[in-house]
Amino acid sequence: MPGKFDNASTRQDFILHQLQEAGEVSIEELCTSLEASTTAIRRDLDDLEQRSLLRGTRGSAISISFNRKVSR
To answer: Which of 52, 53, 56, 67 is an S-S bond match for 48, by CB 3.0 to 4.6 Å?
Structure first.
């Protein structure tokens, strides 16, 4: 039986929600929460970054809006 986060769109929605709540989330945390491989999470983060919805860092992702608040 497939898990509730098997689809990329659902994982990406979860990632964006986590970023909205915390401002930053690690790949390790996402892998654990989503029960997904690092490859799947990195692919999701790359897609979201290409769409300018987050900024990827080494081992984590930062919310674009959080990043703007910090840099002002």
So the answer is: 53
8-71: which CATH topology? Arc Repressor Mutant, subunit A (1.10.10)
The bridge status of strand 54-57 relative to strand 60-63 is antiparallel
Joined together, the tokens standing for residue 33 give: 């929460």
Domain boundaries, the chain: 8-71
- Name residues whose C-beta falls within 8 Å of residue 34's C-beta, 6 or more positions apart in sequence: 5, 11, 14, 40, 41
Residue 71, pLDDT score: 44
CB 54 within 8 A of CB 62: yes
